[in-house]
Amino acid sequence: MIPDSTISSVRAALEAYTDPYLGETLGAAQALREVRAVGEGLVARIALGFPVGGYQAPLQAALTEYLGSRGLTVPLALELEANIRAHAVQRNLKPLGEISNVVAVASGKGGVGKSTVAVNLALAWAKQGARVGLLDADIYGPSQPLMLGLTGQRPTTQDGKHLQPLTSHGILAMSIGFLIDEQQPMVWRGPMVTQALTQLLSETQWGKLDYLVVDMPPGTGDIQLTLAQRVPVAGAVIVTTPQDIALADARKGLKMFEKVSVPVLGIVENMSIHVCSNCGHSEHIFGSGGGARMAEQYGVRLLGELPLDARIREEADGGRPTVVADPASARAQAYFDMARRTGGALAARARDRSSVFPKIVIEES
Questions:
Q1: Cβ–Cβ contacts within 10 Å for residue 323, how many?
Q2: Does residue 44 lie within any of the structural domains?
Q3: Are strands 41-48 and 76-82 parallel, antiparallel or unpaired?
């Protein structure tokens, strides 16, 4: 029988463990729910604020090694669960119905692979156990229909007022590309684009979602600013490549979200390193370390350094993005890791408390 003193020591040690994805201790995150004795060992029940699919084995190994380094060698089993909560949005907006968290994926300029990052982020979260939707907000250049293998398909409506999102690889999706001919250019001014996006967001029957990933248009103009002000966003992800010109534009995107009080969860450095498919030689074609320096400069997290690989492009063009096409590959693991870090960064943010406050109504007597 394991003494109570040992159980207490293990609990105290586990509460002091810093989860690499949360960026804080299990105690600070109130994630350690229970430590109990079972036979000759202990069972720890842990609830993390991000999708945990595929994380149990590595976390259990890390915790066992961590306890051993502190002289606590008692056998440890892990009961791991996800506890994804709604997080605070801009002060003048309210969360969207059953959608817990809207996460915007943005870039300061086009051509950095933002849409590829957005679709793989959404699919990775879904594969890790979350309920996920993807809104293609790039009205001028919608690419998600192609990447999700949904080109030519049209959403349906049951009541004539709301659209049913399409489903692909376990996520829900909506895009202006589902409603127009793929060869038709969108020759619209800013207000029309903003209205179209607002309708796509509010008139789609998303149902209950843990995350709605919004693939934002590139840039930092009037459209992007208006969208950031109207859509209740729990956090934003900035995508860049390592070269200086991309980083300069990414900084503008980060500053835009700061102006509208949308917290930036972190930086994703795309096309970070290229590994030759023939000889295995690694090369930083666009430079190295830019994303890390930018993250340090602005006090945000570096969420991932993603590879430059022709297969990522081929898989997305074929309608089966990397985390679906080859989930066991190293390139897919980079996306899974990025998704877990993004979920952890959001989980560490303040939760939405609006539902616990009473509504105050002032009436004239």
A1: 27
A2: yes
A3: parallel
Q: Is residue 122 in some structural domain?
A: yes
Per-residue pLDDT tens digits for 183-222: 666 677 777 878 888 888 989 999 999 999 999 988 877 7
Amino acid at 92: N
Q: Are 120 and 171 in contact (CB under 8 A)?
A: no
CA angle (52, 56, 62) in 5-degree steps:
120
- Look up the pTM and report it: 0.91
Q: Do 182 and 320 share a structural domain?
A: yes
**CA–CA dist 278, 37 (Å, integer):** 52
Structure tokens at 314: 């081929």
Distances (CA, A) of 7 to 28, 37, 39: 19, 7, 13
- Which residue range is the domain that position 27 belongs to? 4-82
For 296, the enclosing helix (H) or strand (E) is helix 290-298
How far from each other are the two terminal CA atoms of the chain, in whole angstroms?
Answer: 68
Q: What φ, ψ does residue 127 adopt, rounded to 5°?
A: -65, -25
Q: In which element (H, E) is residue 207 found?
A: none
